[in-house]
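Q: Here's a chain of 255 amino acids. Please give me its 3D structure as C-alpha cells.
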Amino acid sequence: MSDDRPQAQIATWAPYPVHVEGRLEPGLSRGLWLIKWLLLVPHLIVLVFLWIAFAALTVVAWFAILITGRYPPGIFRFNLGVFRWTWRVAYYGYNALGTDRYPPFSLADVPDYPARLDITHPEHLSRGLALVKTWLLAIPQYLIAGFFIGGTGSMVWRFSDTTQTGIGGGLISLLVLFAAITLLFHGTYPQGIFDAAMGMNRWAIRVAAYAALMTDVYPPFRLDQGGNDPLPLPRPDWPGASDTPTPTPPAPVPA
C-alpha cells in the first residue's frame, strides 16, 4: 500500500561561480620554503605586467557591462588566466606552501597542477550593480579579506600580498608560518592549518572576483575550509542571486 503523504523537498543550489581548489601534496621538502621567495622572482616580474593589463581590461569590461550587460568573453578569459596564474604562484609560495612543484608560466588551466581556479562566465551582468559593487557593496568583504591577507582591508584582494616574497602580515601568513616551522622540524604539514588557510584564500579570491566584476553573486560570509571547494550553497540572499531554487526530487515511497 502506497503512502500518499507529501514528501519534504530539499532545495539545492548551483555552485558558487568562483571555484578554488588546492591539493596538499605529500612529501614536501623540509627546507625548500626558505628559498621560494627567490624562486618566485621570475613569476612576480611577469605578474606585475599581467596585473597592469588586468586593471586596464577591467575598465574596458566595466564600460561593456554598462552598455551591453555582458562581460566580453575575450577579456574574461584573459582576466581569468591572470587569476589562475596568480593562484598557482600563491599556492606554491607563502599563501599555502601546498606544493613544491614549480608553477607553470601559463594563463591556461593546468588540470594536473595541485592548485586550480575557475570562474563561470556569466551570461548577463547587472548594469546597476556594476556601478556600486567594487566601491560600496564589497566593503564588508574587504574588511574580512584584509584581516586574512594583511593590510587595511580597504582594497580588493591585493596580489602584492598574495604573491608576497616573504612571510608576514595577515592571518594566512601567520598560519602558513606555523606550518612551515612544523614542516622544517617534523617533515609534516598540519592538515588543520592547511584547511584553514585554504578557506581564507578561497574567501579572498571570491571577493576579488566579485570586485573585478566577474560575477554578480555576492560572496557568502562562510569559511569553506579544505582543499576541495564545496559545491552546494545555502539559500542565497545577496544581490544578483537567483530567486528560484532547483528542488531535489523526493525519494520514492516504498509500496
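Q: Can you summarize the key feature?
A: DSSP finds eight helices and four strands in the chain.
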